[in-house]
Amino acid sequence: MHLQGKTIWLTGASSGIGEALAQALAAHGARLILTARREALLVDVRNRCANAESHILLPFDLADVDRLDELVQTAIAKAGHIDVLINNAGIGQRATVMETTMTVDRQIMEINYFSIVALTRALLPHLLTRPDAMVVGIASLMGKFATPRRSAYCASKHALIGFMDALRAEMHDTVVKVLVVCPGWIRTPFSVSALKGDGQQQGSMDNAQKKGIPAETCAAAIIKAMHQNKAEIIVGGKERHGAWLKRFFPGLLRKLVTKVPIT
């Protein structure tokens, strides 16, 4: 996978990992389609990218799953073709199971899972016509193991990894490569907009997120994995060891997650 000259559709592009990815991908010579809900933030991200005038803004609320087929046709019409889809948009959670309403459970699943399934499925026929295509899913380390106060978020990321693994198996003899990215603690505002049990935003950054690796470091790791046609990567600090513990010492991990301070 060479990014120079590729047209890459990046969702969740207005902040955090998406913002860092946009700048890094543009620096590698890619042309971008940038999608997020807030157009003003997308304009700011585009203006800070190399070759800003070549990038396309496509503001959209991905929770509107029923209109994603229409969005795909608009994106293809504007760009001419699309080589890579990076499903980065998502929303977090900070509430116990008992505190969380079904409305919040459904909202998180709608954005973190169903929108990705619908967008990927709608674009897949087009990607299969390209000579070198890729679908990237930004999952989470929480898709490998779970912690308290993240039930819906963990469920959505476990589901996303399962979907992407199945897609990779189905695409094994086609031009479409599939990459799953599992970030741990990344220094972004992601936890600020995480939903509490009643659907209100948390409004503050977690301590672990403050101490996370820079979003630019995460973006560089993702681009390296794309270059190397990796199937899956885990990005982060010492929290990455949780995935190893889950595999080899699951009982120990179950004990540890009950003792680690979780906000």
TrEMBL record:
A single GO cellular-component term on record: membrane
Task: Cite the Ketoreductase domain residue spans from the record.
Answer: 6-188
Source organism (scientific name): Permianibacter aggregans
Keywords in alphabetical order, please.
Answer: Oxidoreductase
Checking Gene3D superfamilies in the record gives: NAD(P)-binding Rossmann-like Domain
Family (UniProt): Belongs to the short-chain dehydrogenases/reductases (SDR) family.
Among its keywords, does the record have Oxidoreductase? Answer: yes
Q: What is this protein called?
A: Short-subunit dehydrogenase
Q: Which GO terms describe its molecular function?
A: oxidoreductase activity
UniProt superkingdom = Bacteria
Pfam families attached to this UniProt entry = adh_short
